[in-house]
Amino acid sequence: MRSIFEKGWRPILALILLFIFWEFCTIIFEIPAWLLPSPSQVFAEAFTGWSGYQVHLASTVQLVITGFLIGASVGIIVAVSLHLIPFMRQAFYPLIIISQNIPTIVLAPLLVIWFGFGILPKLIVITLVCFFPITIALLDGFRQTDNDLKHYVQMAGATKQQIFWKLEWPHALPSLFSGLKISATYSVMGAVISEWLGASKGIGVYMTLASSSYRTDRVFVSIFLIVIMSLIFFAIIRVLEKWVINWKPIEKGSHHESS
Known about the structure:
By secondary structure, the protein is mostly helical. The chain has helices at 2-28, 39-48, 50-84, 86-99, 104-115, 119-143, 147-155, 160-197, 203-212, 216-244, 254-258.
């Protein structure tokens, strides 16, 4: 906890100074609230308007968690399949790269046309956003497995299944969690984009209604909620990473440094 405070006080201080500068600018230049509300107005709306957006927040959190779990599962399954079946990697890896060149905001209306305004197109959007970082990171982790160690266990008579579960999978876990942390933040963005397409509740809906009624303070509340959700999901994945990966590789030169 102490190390976290020591590392995190600088960005917190910078953020506080930014809010102070923002507050003074809105006062000095007499900027109207509908154009740029002051931080105090935004925070006041965040507290007083809790009853107005708590339903939207709960809906988005539920959508993010569901979509992230599906996207993470798809990403892991795709990465493992491409790794274990070489001809699948040669055939589908370029297609996965191409799929990320299609803007989500362009693809999303098609999903609504095909699957309607229910939860399915929203989950597909989040899955498309989430699975790619996980797949790429996990494939890189498999590929970076120590070849000498792999050759040694092969000489010892280990099967492909044993090599995968005892060597390649544990070695790829740090890469997997790197992809999960990226996808955790992307899942919030994907959920908000999917809610813009057509939903009855959600932070995306709350933001759209606030923007159309020139309630800029509520738009900023939505932005802050999105940022906070992303940071919370990132922190959860980081805690899980420390819990699952309770070992650290010995870095070269660490012995000399400690001595």
